[in-house]
Amino acid sequence: MSDLVPDISSVVDADDAADAAAREFTRRGGSATAPDGSEIGRALVVVVGDLAAHGDGDASLGPLLVELLEEAEFHVDATIVVSGDEVEIRNALNTAVIGGVDLVISVGGVGVGARDVTPEATESLLDRRLPGIEEAVRSSGLAAGATDAGLSRGLAGISGQTLVVNLADSRAAVRDGMATVTMLARHVIESISDF
User: Which intervals hold domain MoaB/Mog (predicted)?
Assistant: First the structure.
């Protein structure tokens, strides 16, 4: 059997298979490969919102982001749901950076409300801002009719070896934002991993 594929022939149940795959993923340095052999980056999703954190809000944005990331050939490590608290948001983003993911996408908390503090939580973690991505997400969102995306205060930048992007929390903003971000993310991730 190939050294890139874990030997799970003796695995009895799905939990053991998942554990074996995770161990193999870690053994290979945390990068998965697509069926055609191309590299896939690791990603983490952070959903920000008081209602979502208490199980009352629209829970569909996390799975939507995971689906869009997987379509773009990213391996999604996890989805974290936090309230609109600056410290909780910063801790979730920092967990992703420390965990070594290539891309962390947060959704929510980028408006002008009192609890919209995702940009403030993100800014302190960034080593370099990427205003080109920020503006591309805003302008494409506005052009697509996602007003919340066009008015978003969301940031994009690099923290260590991780690309961090904040998106607005409507389905239209997420779909349009991810179309823009995934197009640019590969280039950024390749550039920072070569550094």
Answer: 44-188
